[in-house]
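dumping this here so i dont lose it again. seq + smiles for S-adenosylmethionine
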Amino acid sequence: MSSSPEIPSDVPTAARVYDVMLGGKDNFAVDRAVAEASLAIMPELRAIAVHNREMLHRVVAHLAAEEGIRQFLDLGSGLPTARNTHEVAQEAAPDARVVYVDIDPIVLAHGRAILADNAGTRVVTADLRDPRAVLDHPDVRALIDFEQPVCVLLAGILHHLSDDEDPGGIVAALRDAVPSGSFFFITNFTRLGDAPESVELERQLLAQLGTGRVRTPAELAAFFDGLEILAPGLVPLPLWRPAATIIDASTVDVRFMTGGVGRKP
Ligand SMILES: C[S@@+](CC[C@H](N)C(=O)[O-])C[C@H]1O[C@@H](n2cnc3c(N)ncnc32)[C@H](O)[C@@H]1O
């Protein structure tokens, strides 16, 4: 991939490091160096990224097919990959609309391709740390009607916000902006008391990438304040309504990310 003024190749970004984990090609040597250092600490990270995508697919399919959700606001959506949110949602409901929002301009650059033949999607470059700017963005308003229930996706993004940036306050602002019957899908890195590599990984990511906050189950639960959590609760990602029935829930790859879905009453 070539570098440009908007997409510098000398500083790693979360979107591109995640792309490395998912086996994508939209990344630079600096991103691969961070990914390799992370994988040296936690080799399961590639599998964990796949678990995160697979939970996203199950959640979006469920909300579109069973809960009648037709609008999805995918915050920190990352680079386009296999089976993006709009593909899963529109499979269940062809009239579903999806707005992808990411701070990294590379997402817009690569997302333009998915816009070409799909009137039901937009890609926006915006910073979630200013939730009002996200909510008021003209491309968000063009597709999302905030009088109707919406699913807000916060998959793998809140761990890229530090505690000082008040991720709980940001989720609360989003919750206040959507109507009753809306859903929140949240996943986050989770501290594992019996696996010291979860702490070591946080140290490495903060040093090399600048973000990567590993949170406790209680810290994750606080993001769901004011929401009714859907069964089976806040769980390791592969355990959320799995297609397969037998999962070994003792491994780091299953447990390192936790997530769930909450409904605004
Ligand atoms: C690990 S990726 C997750 C991608 C996707 N949501 C998923 O779960 O597969 C995290 C994404 O959050 C984006 N991000 C980080 N901080 C952000 C911010 N303040 N505002 C918007 N996006 C942000 C990164 O650029 C990156 O693409």
